[in-house]
Specification:
This protein has 434 residues and is mostly helical. The chain has two domains: 229 residues, Orthogonal Bundle (Preprotein translocase SecY subunit), CATH 1.10.3370.10; 192 residues, Preprotein translocase SecY subunit. 71% of the residues lie in helices and 6% in strands. A three-stranded antiparallel sheet has the order 4-1-5. It has a two-stranded antiparallel ribbon with strand order 2-3. A hairpin with a 2-residue loop joins β2 and β3. It is globular. It starts with a helix and ends in an 8-residue tail after the last helix. 34% of the residues are buried.
Length: 434
Amino acid sequence: MFSAIRNAFAMPELRRKIIFTLVMVLIFRMGCYVPVPFLDPSMLANLIEGSGSVMNIMDTFSGGALSQGSFFALSYQPYINASIVMQLLTYALPVLENLQKEGETGQKKIQRITNFVSLGIALAMSYAYYATVRNLGAVQYTEGFAGVFTAIIIILTFTAGAQLITWMGNQINARGIGQGISVLLFAGIVSRGPSVVWNMFVAAAATPTLYIAIFFVVVFFVFMIGFIVFMNESERRIPVQYAKRVVGRKQIGGQNSYLPIKIAMSGVMPIIFAMSVMALPSTLEMFRAPAAQPVGFWQNFYAGFINFFKYTSPWYALIYFLLIIAFNFFYVSMQFDPVKLSNQLRNSNGGIPGIRPGKPTADYIRKVMNKITIVGAFFLGVIAIVPILSNLFISGLNVAMGGTTVLILVSVVLETGRTLQSQMMMRHHRGFLE
């Protein structure tokens, strides 16, 4: 591994990409500790501790910036929510659907619109976060002109931080290694790892019986990492045979190949989408907390709605699981088009043995893809609800870094390793993982 890293840094172009990615990660980590003006971060711990494990997980993804009320407190949430909205609207509005079919030019226009939607969502979330910290008494000035000026500065600072993270992610995509948002998520999770482990041992020191639970948690995490690696690398291979043809005096074609379909084709994106949707009730609670003793229909309805989506509610786990399955099918349908793939096989004189070209081939590929997608969706759903189940059965440890965080860590490491390997193979170097 060390020799492979040395070979990677020996290549000027690859070295520049790695250094650029590390610089972006360093800026991200520095931004997580930049204080927001007129805020008292010492009073914000109650916001995370009192909001359930949903906010704990969001704080883990942001690298602790949410609980500290720092410059990057909103993290990636506005951009992810904007991406969800745009992807749903692409199927609903013919204008956006036509833009998607225009290739690179249309994708740039959609990306520009997504950035504006992300800006609007960031402003709304910034105001919600400001209203929450103001109610906690963490804002220095709340009355008169000073209060208005303070509110504007805090909201614009949170919004600017969210937009800067989006820009850094796009820059990593263009000039660095790996997927930008995933790399920044990886950095935030890794930075929170030591504190999570420390808190587990502190809880065990107060309750010695929890040391046994820590042992089983460690064993389970090792098993989970192996299981995630196995599922990430698993794929269904559809055999493909290419017909022979004569070009000049040479006979080409006649080769046998396969079409790989990964089980976890969508990666961690369905979990992130579902988590963003499930965080909406918590965002509403920031705007207006439910009454301690609700009176009347609307107050009771609002309080019941907020409690229904609490992290400790069994309905939360069920809806979360179903949303992951739905988003997985939705994401795979956007990324994988059986009709287009069937046409490409027919144009290259290829076909699946025993299946006629054209519509039968597309139907067969769609059938196989649906079966694989079901397996992948259940895999993601089970991984995602592990923290909920662990907190129900082992309440003293509060394991915020559950299956989702481990899945992100493993996926980013594998994807970055494959990217480096392909970059080195293109330049006649040995693979990164060899």
